[in-house]
Amino acid sequence: MTVQFIDTDADLVSFCQRIADSDWMTVDTEFLREKTYYAQLCLIQVATVDEIACIDPLTIDNLDPILDLIYDPAITVVFHAARQDLELFYTLRGSLPTALFDSQLAATVLGYGDQIGYGNLVKQCLGVELDKAHSRTDWSKRPLDAGQIDYAADDVRYLRDIYQALLKELNDKNRLHWLDEDFHSLSNVSTYAPDPENIWKRIKGAGRLKGAQLAILQKLADWREQRAIKSNRPRRWILKDDVMIDLAKLAPDSLQKFSMIRGLESGTIDRHGKALLAQITLAKTMPRDAWPTLKKPLKLSTQQDATVDALMALMRKFCDEQSIAPAAVASRKELERIVAGDTTVNLLHGWRNEIVGHHIQAFLDGKLAITVNNTLLNTHEQG
Question: How much is the pTM?
Answer without folding.
Answer: 0.92
